[in-house]
Amino acid sequence: MPTRLTILAVTASFALLASLVSTHADDKAAAAVASQDNGKYADKEGNPTFKIQEDGTVDWYTYSGYRRFNSECNVCHGADGAGSSFAPALANSLKTMTYADFLSIVAEGRKNLSAGNEKVMPAFGENKNVYCYMDDLYVYLRARAVGDLPRGRPAKKEDKPEAAKEAETSCMGG
């Protein structure tokens, strides 16, 4: 009987450990648009996603994410999220990062101080130029991560939806 309890305990421990390890993998199928609300797109899980039309026109939020990324994030994370000696390539990181993890890391920051390779992501939870546009940043980087958005400024974009204008005014305090 003790052997059986030990096996059950070990099995339960492995099950718990497996549930804690992220198996999130983003790809074109997972990022596919399942719903739309006032120009904002979501995947089947309800996470923000992007829409790129056949002629290359991107949705407003992806374009806004590009602009915000280039004003706040590219200094460390490199052009188009391709990475640098200061910070990782977010175009790769988002392939395995959940939306919730992204929000948490951007808002609270992160420290990696292992093996003499000290990297610190500052917290942007109080920077309105970042937190008011977290979804925009996420969809832009998600589009880059799954390979649907090439490097550089999107050539065409949808018009800014009224809902985006209202959210921006509300968040920025204008």
From TrEMBL:
Signal peptide: 1-25
Alphabetized UniProt keyword annotations: Heme, Iron, Metal-binding, Signal
Biased composition regions of type Basic and acidic residues, renumbered to the chain: 155-168
Top-level taxon of origin: Bacteria
SUPFAM superfamilies: Cytochrome c
Transmembrane segment boundaries: none
Region (Disordered): 150-174
Domain Cytochrome c per the UniProt entry, residue ranges: 60-145
One Pfam family of this chain: Cytochrome_CBB3
NCBIfam families linked: 4cys_cytochr
Record-given protein name: Methanol metabolism-related c-type cytochrome
